[in-house]
């Protein structure tokens, strides 16, 4: 039954995530009281997602580090710089939106990219390593990036932020890997049992974060402008992943992995950071990302695989 529920949720995450955002906004009067539970719920999600990671897979991917290094460069350097420039260009007098855009694109790659890479037959070992390294380094990358880009305007407790990320991401990730290697005989079975609960938890996190951001949601031209900007930036992340993969002559599987890892973001972490450390307006660009992240993932994967298929067919016809 749990397997059927998990399959049902997987196929409908494209529609369930924006639904959770709408529910959060509508039921904000009582859902926002659950905000203190979000870090703990997210730690559970991270733990479940990490159960399938094997050390042998990570070692194999380390032999070819270029895709990993370029993906991390896109995630932590190129996209935050683009977000900073776009923010100052179009939201000159709106510091909260600028900070929200920066946070949306300095947070680590989404763990759920593992699911999309698996669906589109990408290289899971490369994906696992990018997710793990980016997650492990996020307590360092995220506070330093925030201090670099907005530290002059906003006071930030870096030690507290690093501690939050450490317990919310790093500890459950390492725990999942250790249990997978030394404790659980069949991690696939255990992960299969916990996966539907993790997906329900993800929807709860999205709804709660949306409820906290609800007061800042006002249907006007400014909100539409933010939505369009986030959509363009998110799309650009996927595009850069695919372009850089071809520039370093990666195979099709690694190209698919770089596409998803460069485009997807752990929005729940970003929203949690924004809600805990900043005014509600900062979380608006981040929460908006949940409306179309899964849609963009599915669309980007379909476009890329069709493009790669046509290229392979052309190569065969030439040869």
Which helices and strands appear, and what pairs or packs with what?
Blueprint: H1 2-26, H2 28-31, H3 38-50, H4 55-62, H5 66-90, H6 95-104, H7 113-119, H8 124-150, H9 158-183, H10 187-213, H11 221-247, H12 252-263, H13 267-277, H14 284-289, H15 293-318
Helix pairs in contact: 1-10, 1-15, 3-9, 3-10, 4-8, 5-6, 5-8, 5-11, 5-12, 7-8, 7-12, 8-9, 8-12, 10-13, 11-12, 11-15, 12-15
Global mean pLDDT: 80
Q: β content, as a range? A: under 5%
Question: Which class do the helix and strand fractions yield?
Answer: mainly alpha
Number of strands: 0
State the domain count. 1
CATH uppermost class: Mainly Alpha
Separation of the first and last Cα atoms: 49 Å
Task: State the helical fraction.
Answer: over 70%
Walk me through the structure.
The protein has about 325 residues and is mostly helical. It has one domain (about 20-319): Na+/H+ antiporter like fold (Up-down Bundle), CATH 1.20.1530.20. It has 15 helices and no strands. The chain has helices at about 1-25, 30, 40-50, 55-60, 65-90, 95-105, 115-120, 125-150, 160-185, 185-215, 220-245, 250-265, 265-275, 285-290, 295-319. Helix 1 (about 1-25) packs across helix 15 (about 295-319) and helix 12 (about 250-265) packs antiparallel against helix 15 (about 295-319). About 45% of the residues are buried.
């Amino acid at each position: 039954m749990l397997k059927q529920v998990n399959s049902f949720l997987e196929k409908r995450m494209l529609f369930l995530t924006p639904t959770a955002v709408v529910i959060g906004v509508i039921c904000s009067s009582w859902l926002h009281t659950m905000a203190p539970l979000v870090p703990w719920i997210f730690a559970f999600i991270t733990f479940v997602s990490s159960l399938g990671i094997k050390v042998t897979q990570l070692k194999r991917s380390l032999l070819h580090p270029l895709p990993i290094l370029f993906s991390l460069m896109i995630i932590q350097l190129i996209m935050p710089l683009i977000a900073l420039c776009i923010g100052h260009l179009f939201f000159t007098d709106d510091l909260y939106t600028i900070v929200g855009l920066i946070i949306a694109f300095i947070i680590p790659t989404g763990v759920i990219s593992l699911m999309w890479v698996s669906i589109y037959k990408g290289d899971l070992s490369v994906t696992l390593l990018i997710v793990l390294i980016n997650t492990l380094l996020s307590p360092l990358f995220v506070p330093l990036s925030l201090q670099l880009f907005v530290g002059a305007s906003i006071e930030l407790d870096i030690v507290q932020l690093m501690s939050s990320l450490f317990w919310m991401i790093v500890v459950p990730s390492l725990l999942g890997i250790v249990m997978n290697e030394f404790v659980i005989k069949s991690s696939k079975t255990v992960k299969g049992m916990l996966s539907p609960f993790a997906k329900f938890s993800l929807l709860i996190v999205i709804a709660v974060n949306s409820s906290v951001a609800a007061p800042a949601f006002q249907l006007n031209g400014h909100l539409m402008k933010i939505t369009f900007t986030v959509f363009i930036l998110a799309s650009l992340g996927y595009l850069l992943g695919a372009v850089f993969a071809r520039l370093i002559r990666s195979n099709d599987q690694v190209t698919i992995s770089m596409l998803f890892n460069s485009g997807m973001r752990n929005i729940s972490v970003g929203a949690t950071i924004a809600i805990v450390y900043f005014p509600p307006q900062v979380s608006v660009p981040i929460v908006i990302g949940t409306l179309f992240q899964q849609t963009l993932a599915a669309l980007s994967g379909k476009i890329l695989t069709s493009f790669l298929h046509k290229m392979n067919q052309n190569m065969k016809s030439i040869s």
